[in-house]
């Protein structure tokens, strides 16, 4: 297989790709693709500019930060084409390998292939902290220049630059990056335009010497990485409809796994605001137990249980450390408990919407739904016979300690799943998840042939269930409210049907769907809640809530409406099929951190819910 072996694939895929003409918005855009290898990730915009990459792990120093600093001080890695006219960008099908084509006014151009190597080598996963860029000419007479400007300490420090025979070193206070390349080092260091008359290879990673030649290594890594992702995607149990949507969402969720520990990050960025000028800017590069559960649930539905096995390693450490006591809603991906929140004053922020935050104060919160999310996240491991190591009695005993916390705290006020910083209530969503903890423990006990424990947890689940059905219902609103005894509406109550708390055809649930649509929907999109929070009333729609609405509509027999809303959400994705956290109902723009695992989960769940069955055509 030679360097041009992917051309036939690209010729069929590219006409469906977004085309960009002229220069892009200099202040930044979420029209980006994500590459990674379950150790770190990077964002590449539609001009082929690498605008975000944290090293040595997801929550590390953004050595490329142009997404949050579009000024001359921002750091990025680009390959610019002289006389640029338009661009095309697609993923190599069923992989995390990204291809960007830039064309000049004469129709000639370049192709940039970006990826982070990931494949099996010597019976273990090879996932180095390395970015590979391969650039080849399309046509003749094209001139390019390479802009390589990493920075350190969140952009505060420029590197010391040294040069070897075939490499350039970028030396920072805490890490050194080495660029191995077969391009002219002089052209790279001077940022000069030069004639691209042959394919070039760039490999950025740790300050280590390559064992083999640059070209051969880059070529082999590309082929091996493509093979890995195609094999991984081939094993997914897909719905009949929207298969490409589901595959892209699944790969994105997999890329959000920090394989070393098993943690799953909520998103790959920090401080992309939920709405312009809102200051709702948060750091999502950590592992929320709530978000991780939904990721696991979605991937399990596709028969991808490997991520669950990795996550359970991380989760068992969280549970063991707690020793039956308080569990935080989120931790660092290395199990760090303290994630102090601070502001990086010198970064202007996405489209100049500061502040830029590092760390997340929510680690201090009491969010009682966390206990249900733990039990739900682990439950399948007791039933699934495919796993290398099924959970058993020892793991059940550990989870019972979590269940004790769930029952002890189910009617205590907390910050809720939306992490309200100045208001505590007995949130319906938290009570619901604490019911789920007890309910699933009862089912696990039955599976383990422990009838006394099954009865014990079943009785506790029933206590919570009766209280929730009675006190969360608002006669005034004819809906389940966001808190016990409350009247405000909140989209999270739609989870009642998803986790099998209530029959979706129960008149109270059907009435709740109607009430939520009237109060929270802007066209197809749904906001989280109606009551003002710490920053006022939310301006944008929260994508996962829209997906919960789609699921609920399908469950109550309004499937045609569900499909219409789902198609609207498909249209809200960027040109590569990725979603952020929020959608602006007026402009359709993406806001919030990106790519958001919650949103990608919604794509999978709704496609699985709405798709016609395979036996309808085969």
UniProtKB/TrEMBL annotation:
Pfam families associated with the record: Glyco_hydro_15, TREH_N
Origin superkingdom: Bacteria
GO terms for biological process, alphabetical: carbohydrate metabolic process
A GO molecular-function annotation: hydrolase activity, hydrolyzing O-glycosyl compounds
InterPro entries in the cross-refs: 6-hairpin_glycosidase_sf, 6hp_glycosidase-like_sf, GH15-like, Trehalase-like_N
SUPFAM superfamilies per record: Six-hairpin glycosidases
Residues covered by the GH15-like domain: 244-607
Annotated Trehalase-like N-terminal domain residues: 34-180
Official protein name in the record: GH15 family glucan-1,4-alpha-glucosidase
């Amino acid at each position: 297989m030679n360097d041009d072996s992917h051309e036939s694939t690209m010729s069929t895929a590219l006409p469906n790709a977004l085309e960009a003409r002229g220069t892009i918005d200099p202040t930044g855009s979420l029209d980006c693709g994500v590459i990674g290898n379950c150790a770190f990730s990077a964002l590449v915009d539609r001009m082929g500019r690498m605008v975000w990459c944290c090293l040595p792990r997801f929550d590390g120093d953004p050595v490329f930060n142009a997404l949050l600093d579009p000024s001359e001080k921002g750091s990025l890695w680009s390959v610019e084409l002289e006389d640029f006219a338009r661009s095309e960008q697609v993923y190599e099908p069923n992989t995390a390998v990204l291809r960007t084509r830039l064309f000049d006014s004469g129709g000639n151009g370049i192709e940039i292939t970006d990826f982070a190597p990931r494949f099996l080598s010597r019976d273990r996963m090879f996932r180095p902290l390395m970015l590979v860029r391969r650039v080849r000419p399309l046509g003749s007479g094209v001139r390019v220049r390479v802009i390589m400007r990493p920075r350190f300490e969140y952009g505060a420090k420029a590197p010391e630059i040294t040069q070897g025979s075939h490499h350039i070193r970028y030396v920072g206070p805490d890490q050194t990056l080495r660029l191995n390349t077969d391009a002219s080092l002089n052209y790279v260091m001077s940022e000069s335009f030069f004639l691209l008359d042959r394919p070039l290879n760039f490999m950025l990673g740790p300050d280590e010497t390559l064992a083999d030649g640059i070209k051969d290594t880059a070529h082999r890594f590309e082929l091996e990485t493509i093979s890995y992702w195609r094999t991984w995607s081939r094993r997914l149990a897909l719905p009949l409809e929207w298969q490409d949507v589901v595959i892209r969402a699944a790969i994105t969720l997999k890329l959000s796994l920090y394989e070393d520990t098993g943690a799953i990050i909520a998103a790959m960025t920090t401080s992309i605001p939920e709405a312009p000028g809102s200051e709702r800017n948060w750091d999502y590069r950590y592992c929320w137990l709530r978000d991780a559960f939904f990721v696991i649930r979605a991937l399990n539905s596709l028969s991808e249980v490997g991520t669950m096995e990795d996550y359970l390693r991380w989760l068992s450490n969280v549970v063991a450390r707690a020793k039956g006591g308080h569990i935080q809603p989120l931790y660092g991906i290395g199990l760090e408990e303290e994630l102090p929140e601070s502001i990086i004053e010198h970064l202007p922020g996405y489209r100049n919407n500061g502040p830029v935050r590092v760390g997340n104060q929510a680690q201090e919160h009491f969010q009682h739904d966390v206990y249900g999310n733990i039990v739900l996240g682990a439950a399948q491991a007791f039933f699934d016979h495919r796993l290398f190591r099924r959970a058993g009695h020892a793991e059940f005993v550990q989870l019972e300690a979590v269940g004790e916390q769930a029952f002890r705290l189910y009617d205590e006020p907390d910050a809720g799943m939306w992490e309200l910083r100045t208001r505590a209530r007995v949130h319906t969503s938290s009570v619901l998840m604490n019911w789920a903890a007890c309910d699933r423990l009862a089912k696990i006990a039955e599976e383990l042939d422990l009838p006394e424990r099954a009865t014990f947890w079943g009785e506790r689940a029933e206590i919570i269930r009766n209280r929730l059905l009675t006190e969360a219902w608002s006669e005034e609103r004819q809906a389940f409210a966001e808190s016990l005894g409350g009247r405000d509406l909140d989209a999270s109550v739609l989870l009642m049907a998803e986790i099998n708390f209530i029959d979706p055809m129960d008149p109270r649930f059907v009435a709740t769907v109607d009430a939520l649509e009237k109060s929270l929907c802007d066209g197809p999109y749904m906001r989280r809640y109606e009551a003002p929070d710490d920053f006022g009333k939310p301006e944008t729609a929260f994508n996962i809530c829209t997906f919960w609405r789609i699921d609920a509509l399908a469950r109550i027999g309004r499937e045609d409406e569900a499909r219409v809303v789902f198609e609207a959400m498909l249209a809200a994705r960027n040109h590569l099929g990725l979603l952020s956290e929020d959608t602006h109902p007026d402009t359709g723009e993406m806001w919030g951190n990106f790519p958001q695992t919650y949103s990608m989960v919604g794509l999978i769940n709704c496609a699985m819910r709405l798709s016609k069955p395979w036996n309808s055509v085969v």
